Every structure is written in C-alpha cells, then in structure tokens.
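user: can you give me the structure for this one chain? tokens are fine.
assistant: on it. calling the predictor now.
[tool input]
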Amino acid sequence: MNLTKEEFSLFNLKSRLKLLKKDGKLLRQRYPGEYMLVSLYSIYGFHIETIYDVDNFKTLSVNSILNPDVYQLYPP
C-alpha cells in the first residue's frame, strides 16, 4: 500500500497508528516535556510526527509534517 499525505490524514487516529506500525520507520524521538514523547517517522515518502502522553499512556496526535527541516529539531 502507498498513500499520499492527504490520504493518510483521512484515516482516524487508531488507523494511522496501525499504518505506522505496519509500514512506518522510526527515525528519531525527543522529550520536550517530562511527560511527552514526540517521535518522527518516515512512511510512504513523507514524515509523520506522533505525540505520546507518557503519564497517561495515550497517543495524543499522529500528523504529517509540513516543515522539511523537522529532522533537525530532533537530537541525534
């Protein structure tokens, strides 16, 4: 399966997570706050950023990234 950013964004949160698990590649992660984990993935030729609430064990968002320089926001 190969989707565009627009097609990917039409899926609900649960389906986007399933697609990331199946076809995505984790690139980097960062902790901008004590209880937040932000992850950068590559899937179908574009980037996805997820925000996970570590304290409540809940994914808050899974969205495509518009900024092509987003990779530089993540520590190596």
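assistant: here you go. Residues 13-23 form the longest helix (11 residues). Residues 5-65 form one domain.
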